[in-house]
Amino acid sequence: MPNNIVITGEKYVGKSTIVRKLIEKLNLKAGGFVVGRNGSFNQWLSFYLSDPLAYYEHQTKENVNFKENCQIFAKRDNVEAEWDIRPDVFDTLGVKLLENGLQNRDIVIMDELGRFELKANKFQQKVFEILDSPNPVIAVLKDEHNKFLDKVRSREDVDIYRIKKNNNDIIFNKTYKKLEKIINNKNKE
Fold first, then answer.
1. CATH fold of 4-35+47-188, please?
2. How large is the average pLDDT for residues 44-71?
3. What percent helix, strand, coil does the chain show, rounded to 5?
4. Which helix (H) or strand (E) holds 85?
5. Beta bridge pairs of residue 6
6. Where are the domains of the chain?
7. Angle at 141 between CA 135 and CA 146, to 5 degrees
8. Of 32, 39, 142, whose CA–CA distance to 83 is shortest?
9. How far apart are the C-alpha atoms of 1 and 58, rounded to whole Å?
């Protein structure tokens, strides 16, 4: 039985919200990474990697040390400017967050995989290593095609769920049942 859940869909349909609700409802200690954003809605000026626990905690209360544990991997001066992308952030902090999730947490979150990591070879290798592991994984995939994302989608050990604006509750219930089953099977081992 696949232990990798992949969630995809258009921008702003609730992919990350479903991931967070799953973690909260199943009371899981999440590892891996979450991508945070700085700027105005849909006019982002930077993206950064964060540990899921720190990110979720920061969303509910002010965490003064939060910024110290994050690292920007893409930035621009204004919305018309080209992105300045730093693949080394994925290859260092991204790999470290994924490894920590694999070794020390109940589940590995990858929220979100996209295009900025196309030149981060160590990071991509770690993503596939984690997908090969017996640990439960939830990955959010950007709704576009590239060599990296298509390789994730083509795996036989992933269950892919597509979110649309009108099916959030249905997808949440399906992924909840699937994840609960994965965790129960892992606990029996």
1. Rossmann fold (3.40.50)
2. 74
3. 45, 25, 30
4. strand 84-85
5. 139, 160
6. 4-35+47-188
7. 115
8. 39
9. 34
